[in-house]
Amino acid sequence: MTLRDTVWDEVLREITRMGYITVSDLPFEESQQYTVRRTLKEMEEAGWLRRRSSHTSKWCLGKKAEVHLNASRDAIQNAREIASEE
Q: What's the predicted TM-score (pTM) here?
């Protein structure tokens, strides 16, 4: 599995649980941060994640994630609150 695949998997796991993530929530080394951020951007472009603006540090469940993942109502509500407050 590539680093990108590992990032994708970890992001989906955490975002399903919490409804949002920050890069610092993810268990990756500093040297891997470029790939992590690039993968997050790709996930946002594909509709799995969203942010209120490109300047925010929190990534929330996107529309695809809300539809296709088994996220709890609390996680979905957390994501919506975070997306609207930043």
A: 0.88
